From TrEMBL:
Main function: Transferrins are iron binding transport proteins which can bind two Fe(3+) ions in association with the binding of an anion, usually bicarbonate.
SMART domains: TR_FER (SM00094)
UniProt record, GO biological process: iron ion transport; otolith development
UniProt keyword Transmembrane present: yes
Protein name per UniProt: Serotransferrin
Every Transferrin-like domain range: 30-370
PROSITE patterns assigned: TRANSFERRIN_LIKE_4 (PS51408)
Length: 408
């Protein structure tokens, strides 16, 4: 039948036309969580320059209140990515189920940012990192990676410090060391009840007028890594926990303060985790931990998508000698915006966030988790709200503990 044949032909032609209907490609959006006005401005400049260079994808800049807020925004989809420090990467993975799309390389070889070392005066012949009880210590600040997380995690993991059921780290540290300088340890933010041990401030000196003792800023002259080094140099502490670069950043006239001008490399040594000691240039074998560089935190399903966009941005602006530069914060009034200024290039992270952090640094961070929760909820982040609402009777005895809150 000819009419039937014509109908079949029309149907076939219709399918052919549908098969070749052009598909409209939408430009994918990528939203970046920023934490300051300066960082937001650099993000907006990056977005504008990327559009001008026809980099595929549209960058949006989302303002976060703090790092934890950025984690929540990424998890709920109101942001796609943010650059974070190693400690925050761990918290983002543990508490929010987030992953890494990329990490920074500072030396063009690996993802190591710096090494945390224990520095002492060479004249202190009877010092050992395995026997620090009742010794005096100098820390750049409370809850800093260099001055708190790494050294205290090391002491916990080597069973020199026992935290106890209350998970009171300052109390345990105060009971362990004879006296210390931990700037900020008595600040209301870190000591809301005023119970943190006073001996954690006894090696602090405040300013020239004996004010601001133990302050969490430069008014305390033993604040920061240079301050911790000064604390040891002036014989007010036995050991300083600093970056491997700290001493070199303060010698040869780079620091004009009298204590630094009088300091010589030969005056100092490194204390190694195995109880031995080493020269200042032997930090590769004698350090408490290698601290990973910053990474780009994303949702698990966006690892590939975000990396592809970052790769396009890096190809366009990563090695720029003029115009916008991805790894420079010059002109914005702050440093390390979006990425560390020391970044050589971004490298793709194919594995999990723990593969980027590495086993030794992950073990350091795990020392700050409440051990009781590991046995009951090995893969969950328990907040006091969840415990109060869901299990008030059975778990009331540890309702004040939060595996994740210990990290923030």
């Amino acid at each position: 039948d000819s009419s039937c044949t014509r109908s079949v032909i029309k149907t076939l032609l219709l399918h052919i036309n549908l098969s070749f209907t052009p598909v409209t490609m939408t430009t994918p959006n990528f939203s970046w969580c920023v934490l300051s006005e300066a960082e937001e401005q650099k993000c907006l400049d990056l977005a504008g320059n990327a559009t001008a260079r026809n980099v595929r994808g549209s960058l949006l800049c989302v303002r976060g209140l703090n790092t934890r807020d950025c984690m929540e925004k990424i998890k709920n989809g109101t942001a796609d990515a943010a650059s974070m420090f190693a400690d925050d990467i761990y918290a983002a993975g543990l508490c929010y189920g987030l992953e890494l799309a990329a990490g920074e390389s500072h030396n063009a070889v690996d993802g190591i940012s710096y090494y945390v070392v224990a520095m002492a005066r060479r004249s202190s012949s009877d010092l050992s990192l395995l026997e620090m009880h009742e010794r005096s210590s100098c820390h750049p600040g409370i809850r800093t990676t260099v001055g708190w997380t790494v050294p205290i995690g090391y002491l916990v993991n080597t069973s020199q410090i026992s935290i106890g059921e209350q998970c009171n780290f300052p109390k345990a540290v105060g009971n362990f060391f004879g006296y210390s300088c931990v700037p900020g340890v008595k600040d209301p933010l870190h000591d809301p009840r005023g119970n943190n041990p006073k001996n954690l401030c006894e090696a602090c000196i405040g300013d020239e007028n004996d004010r601001h003792i133990c302050a969490n800023n430069h008014k305390e002259r033993h604040y920061g890594e240079a301050g911790a080094l000064r604390c040891v140099a002036e014989n007010l502490g036995d050991v300083a926990f600093v970056k491997h670069t700290t001493v070199f950043d303060n010698l040869d006239g780079k620091n004009q303060e009298s204590w630094a001008l009088d300091l010589e490399l030969e005056d100092l040594k490194l204390l190694c985790p195995d109880g031995t000691e080493a020269g200042l240039d032997e930090y590769l074998r004698c350090h408490l931990s290698a601290v990973p560089a910053n990474g780009v935190v994303v949702r698990m399903e966006d690892k590939c998508r975000v990396w592809k966009y970052l790769e396009r941005l890096q190809n366009a602006f990563g090695n720029a000698t003029e115009g916008f530069s991805l790894f420079s914060s010059a002109g914005y009034g702050q440093s390390d915006l979006l990425f560390s200024d020391a970044t050589h290039h971004l490298q793709r992270v194919l594995g999990s966030y723990t593969s980027w952090l590495g086993p030794s640094y992950t073990a350091i961070l795990q020392a700050f988790e409440d051990p009781r929760l590991k046995y009951i909820f090995p893969s969950l982040c328990i907040t006091r709200i969840v415990l109060t609402l869901l299990m008030p009777a059975f778990f009331f005895w540890f309702v004040h503990i939060s595996r994740c809150e210990l990290l923030f």
